[in-house]
Amino acid sequence: MRIGFYTSTFNDRPLEEVVDFAASSGFDAIEIDVGGHIKRPDHVEAAVELARSRDLFVSSITYFGNQLDADRGKRRELRARTSEFASAIGEAGVPIFVIFPGRDDAASEEANYDDFADFVKELIAKTQSFGLTFAIENWPGPKDNFIGTTPRGWQELFRRIEDRRFGLEFDPSHLIRIGVDPYRAMEAVKDRIAILHAKDTAIDRESLQAVGYHGKGWWQYKLPGLGLLDWPRFLRQARGYDFDGTLSIEHEDAAYGWPGKDLSARKEGERLGLDYLKNVLNGL
């Protein structure tokens, strides 16, 4: 497995500085954020070549946005832009394009799944010659209601999108905080995992007791190894499924400078995550 990180942690820094840090720190790969580091589709090739010039594998490019936005104008605009990025990413030879399904609160559950699945199938058809894989991260969204972010939701999408060029950026941290067993969840989708997000979650049981699941402050995202996930078990399980893709650290640990605070602390967090994951993989 390659180990990389998602550049969103450094969206306030130029990409050249970010890839220099990644290469000098010993990372194998990089996951580039569109919002922070690739503003337009015609910038994709230069960004990818910059990373490759530092001997970094570009594991994926990630584009945040609600693909089911209730505002039809915004939805059309986002999807047109997504389609443009898909072509540029495919042409650049990057294997995975990560997007987010979102949700239209005014539409039915079935309509949301049908609509998003139809759009993904259009993207798959458009990029057939590149073999580009599309993946969704299982982040539940700001209202904790994005479709396709739970085991049942994944199956709803996979039933509609049978092509294996659609899969998951599987992130165990989100599952922990919503009460889903990440090991059982991974078992059920082992053949649809395109990339793994390396992020953990810590839960303060006393705070949870005080405020309940709908309260705030009882959970925090953490760097790998600083939360509840049993990483040796998790990565042994992934390896047992012949997963040999990228482990992409998504650093959102407030104890190490996130979001956008002390730069040296953010870098320290990335290095700690890298060292931890290397040690786990070496011990499997």
UniProtKB/TrEMBL annotation:
Q: Which InterPro entries match?
A: IolE/XylAMocC-like (IPR050312), Xyl_isomerase-like_sf (IPR036237), Xyl_isomerase-like_TIM-brl (IPR013022)
Top-level taxon: Bacteria
Q: Which residues does the UniProt record annotate as the domain Xylose isomerase-like TIM barrel?
A: 19-271
Q: Which GO terms describe its molecular function?
A: isomerase activity
The record's listing under Gene3D superfamilies reads: Divalent-metal-dependent TIM barrel enzymes
Record-linked SUPFAM superfamilies: Xylose isomerase-like
Sections of the chain in a coiled coil = none
Which UniProt keyword terms apply here? Isomerase
Q: What is this protein called?
A: Sugar phosphate isomerase/epimerase
